[in-house]
Amino acid sequence: FCVFKMDTTPESYLDLFPLEAIVYLTPDSENGKCHSPQDKVYVLGGLVDESIHKQLTLRRARQQCLQTARLPIREYMVKAPNSRNYHSETLAINQVFDVLSTYYETRNWPAALRAGVSSGKGYVLPDTAEQ
């Protein structure tokens, strides 16, 4: 059982934490290896929008000289065949939080990705690909 403390503030994360501690999560990052959650401060939901703007969050992170990472979907999941040929690594904030909190508890990426990445995204774990 995990307890997460959340606080809101008008201050920017750039003013609250050292730059080297901040990791901006973006599906456009080439870095598919997230660090241990207790060692870093993750920026989730850097962009809240109905449409997907490719590279926007990555550009923002680079402008702020921040490390970037993405969830390791490509490393642990496979594209599931589907009628729309739809595959997306872009997740809602609550899905990203579910993945990270499950990983924090289990230290197991497949379990964490199973918890947060819905099959509607077009990705599944290899053991469920044939089902």
From TrEMBL:
<keyword id="KW-0949">S-adenosyl-L-methionine</keyword>
<dbReference type="InterPro" id="IPR038459">
    <property type="entry name" value="MT_TRM10-typ_sf"/>
</dbReference>
<feature type="domain" description="SAM-dependent MTase TRM10-type">
    <location>
        <begin position="1"/>
        <end position="124"/>
    </location>
</feature>
<dbReference type="GO" id="GO:0000049">
    <property type="term" value="F:tRNA binding"/>
</dbReference>
<keyword id="KW-0489">Methyltransferase</keyword>
<dbReference type="GO" id="GO:0052905">
    <property type="term" value="F:tRNA (guanosine(9)-N1)-methyltransferase activity"/>
</dbReference>
<dbReference type="InterPro" id="IPR028564">
    <property type="entry name" value="MT_TRM10-typ"/>
</dbReference>
<dbReference type="InterPro" id="IPR007356">
    <property type="entry name" value="tRNA_m1G_MeTrfase_euk"/>
</dbReference>
<keyword id="KW-0808">Transferase</keyword>
<protein>
    <recommendedName>
        <fullName>tRNA (guanine(9)-N(1))-methyltransferase</fullName>
        <ecNumber>2.1.1.221</ecNumber>
    </recommendedName>
</protein>
<dbReference type="GO" id="GO:0005654">
    <property type="term" value="C:nucleoplasm"/>
</dbReference>
<dbReference type="GO" id="GO:0002939">
    <property type="term" value="P:tRNA N1-guanine methylation"/>
</dbReference>
